[in-house]
Design brief:
By secondary structure, the chain is an alpha/beta fold. The chain contains 17 helices and eleven strands. The chain has two domains: 73 residues, no CATH class; 353 residues, TIM Barrel (Alpha-Beta Barrel). The termini are far apart.
Length: 457
């Protein structure tokens, strides 16, 4: 980092401490300090929107900010502002653009890694269940990926698995070593103890995305009896310690109405969740249950409810598939993120179990320049309708073509599922969603046109 960056980071730290004493009056100071870093036009627009939000005391985003400042431990709030907003969003992104231009490849904003394939639960239909058990990325390998990523401008790292908290000691060591990066682990949270919660708060730069699929009955349907109660207990520990956490929900044909309900989102807010990630069920592997794929009506319900929550609730929620319109389609293949599984395979996405590179044989940049990742770069967006962004769930023939062209291999060592097989399981869902998505997209086009016309007037 440059001397200028270090000076501005120090200024931000002091501003944040000042702000926490009186957020209502002093938040504008933080926005003023961040503004010089916003060189990208998109970032400047975000800064402008943030200023407008703060001018309205009833705005739900302002309420979320105030709740976070009240709830988070001082070191956690400081690390989030410095590492996520400053390093990952403002400093890192221009570096990534420059590298992408120089090497003519995609450079991600975030990297998802699996420290282990092992898990202390056995959730039915888990997308990671088809990886061979017993695999691990060593501490040195995880550290190397982060070091290489930071050279590319990547300062945001996520963990999945398996259960990443089986490697909690290593994850904490990595967070302390890379104190300028932000980390987030997708976890079943059953291993969270009072001691671990305090260690996470002391590190400051690790958030947890707690897997939950509704209230007790719906959640325990796939995860096992009693797991919901253990999740609620873990959330209490994390909130009391001042750790950043949110929920991660897989919605499927049996739980969509519940996890899309106001009752559920309010319960997550009451527990202290600051964010929520919705993912839809994907039929990966020989034990997959295609009947758990959502119907078009259920996917539309999630589309509508997530947008309602974002305008009214003091929590940041996203839908991994239905929010394609905000990032112009699919974010995988290094365009915004990629996945390194516990065997070292560099996959375009956690839900695309094919690769042509392994981190033990190639550098991270080398993997980004591999045939499979270049296929992604060449074909993105996979559909002009960004509500149909996915090359598997929404456009299965495109995934088949990319895997064949790049001669990628299956990373599901438990069954080596062929791409044609998994594509066929998604084909009917893609066909049923297409007309619904096209109608929604046309409605969005009309709304955008009307909004633009009003601005001109």
């Amino acid at each position: 980092m440059s001397v200028k960056h270090n000076f501005q980071a120090a200024a931000l730290r002091e501003a944040l401490r000042y702000i926490k004493r009186s957020p209502e009056q002093n938040i504008a100071r933080l926005l003023n300090l961040l503004r010089p870093f916003a060189r990208d036009p998109k970032h400047r627009e975000i800064m402008h929107q943030a200023e407008e939000v703060w001018a309205d005391p009833q705005n739900n985003w302002r309420r979320l900010t105030e709740r976070a400042l009240h709830q988070l431990a001082p070191r956690v709030a400081e690390k989030f502002v410095l590492n996520f907003f400053l390093n990952a969003c403002l400093v890192g992104v221009p570096i990534g653009y420059a590298v992408a231009e120089e090497h003519q490849c995609s450079v991600p904003w975030a990297i998802l890694m699996d420290p282990t394939t092992n898990c202390n639960l056995s959730c039915e239909g888990c997308w990671a269940g088809e990886y061979a058990p017993g695999a691990h990325l060593s501490f040195e390998e995880l550290d190397s990926i982060i070091e290489q990523g930071k050279e590319l401008g990547v300062y945001f790292y996520l963990y999945s698995g398996g259960e990443p908290l089986l490697r909690a000691d290593d994850l904490l060591k990595l967070a302390l070593k890379h104190s300028d990066a932000m980390f987030c682990a997708f976890t079943n949270a059953t291993l969270v103890t009072p001691e671990l919660a305090e260690r996470l708060a002391e590190a400051g730069n690790i958030a947890l995305a707690v897997s939950v699929e509704g209230f007790a009955e719906a959640n325990d349907f796939r995860r096992g009896n009693g797991i919901y109660d253990r999740i609620v207990y873990a959330m209490d520990l994390l909130r009391e310690a001042g750790v950043i956490f949110g929920f991660s929900t897989c919605y499927h044909s049996q739980n969509t109405a519940e996890v899309a309900s106001e009752e559920f989102i309010d319960a997550m807010i009451d527990k202290g969740c600051l964010f929520g990630w919705y993912f839809t069920y994907m039929p990966l592997g020989k034990l997959a249950r295609p009947e758990l794929l959502v119907t078009p009506e259920q996917r539309q319900l999630m589309y509508e409810r997530v947008r309602e929550f974002r305008t009214a609730k003091d929590i940041f929620v996203i839908d991994f598939w239905n929010d394609g319109e905000y990032c112009q389609g699919c974010i995988a293949g290094g365009r915004r993120y990629l996945h390194v599984n516990a065997h070292g395979d560099v996959e375009p996405c956690a839900f695309i179990h094919y690769a042509d590179s392994n981190i033990r044989e190639k550098t991270l940049l080398g993997a980004l320049k591999s045939p499979l990742f270049l296929q992604y770069r060449q074909h993105q967006p996979f559909n002009e309708n960004h509500l149909r962004p996915c090359p598997l769930l929404d456009n299965p023939d495109i995934l088949v073509a990319m895997v064949r062209e790049s001669e990628a291999y299956s990373t599901q060592r438990a069954d080596n599922e062929q791409v044609e097989t998994v594509a066929e399981k998604c084909r009917k869902a893609a066909e049923r969603w297409a007309p619904v998505a096209d109608k929604l997209w046309q409605e969005r086009d009309r709304e955008r046109a009307e909004s633009n016309a009003e601005q001109v007037i």
